[in-house]
Amino acid sequence: MQDCIFCKIIAGEIPSSKVYEDDEILIFRDIDPIARVHLLCVPKEHYKTVAELNAARAETLGRALQKIGSFAPSFGLDGGYRLVMNQGEAAGQTVPHLHIHILGGEPLSWGK
Questions:
Q1: What is the pLDDT along the chain (112 residues), one digit of tens a residue?
Q2: How far apart are the C-alpha atoms of 61 and 99, rounded to whole Å?
Q3: Can you tell me the distance from the alpha carbon of 48 to that of 69, in angstroms, rounded to the nearest whole number?
Q4: Are 42 and 78 spatial neighbours (Cβ–Cβ below 8 Å)?
Q5: Which of 87, 97, 102, 104 is most solvent-facing, going by the fewest CB within 10 Å?
């Protein structure tokens, strides 16, 4: 999608601090972190919410979750971390491209 900031990051049009990339997903540091560790995991295919999942997208999302779990200790997240997927504007989704916030590196309260 032309106006999507995440699509532009994926295409390399906007720089990012990448921590992982493969053919299906990109994981990079959030530019406005709310925790010591705040990463974003973004599927390279553009779609907005889990309501738009089909079998292939669900498989990609499953592989993304596996990847997050496998590298979490290397980012100091072995004591725990939070995954957040805001779905729609009313839930706080500010970029209309499905993404997973990975938060941790410090004790998190429910509000953070």
A1: 679 999 999 999 999 999 999 999 999 999 999 999 999 999 999 999 999 999 999 999 999 999 999 999 999 998 999 999 999 999 999 999 999 999 999 999 886 5
A2: 10
A3: 23
A4: no
A5: 87
Annotated active-site residue 101? The verdict is no
Is residue 100 a contact partner of residue 83, using CB atoms and an 8 Å limit? yes
State how far the Cα of 55 lies from the Cα of 43, in Å rounded to an integer: 14
CATH class of the region 5-104:
alpha beta
State which amino acid sits at residue 51: A
Backbone angle region of 13, left / alpha / beta, with phi > 0 → left and psi within -120 to 50 → alpha: alpha
Catalytic choice (38, 97, 99, 101): 99
The Cα 91–Cα 110 span in angstroms is 15
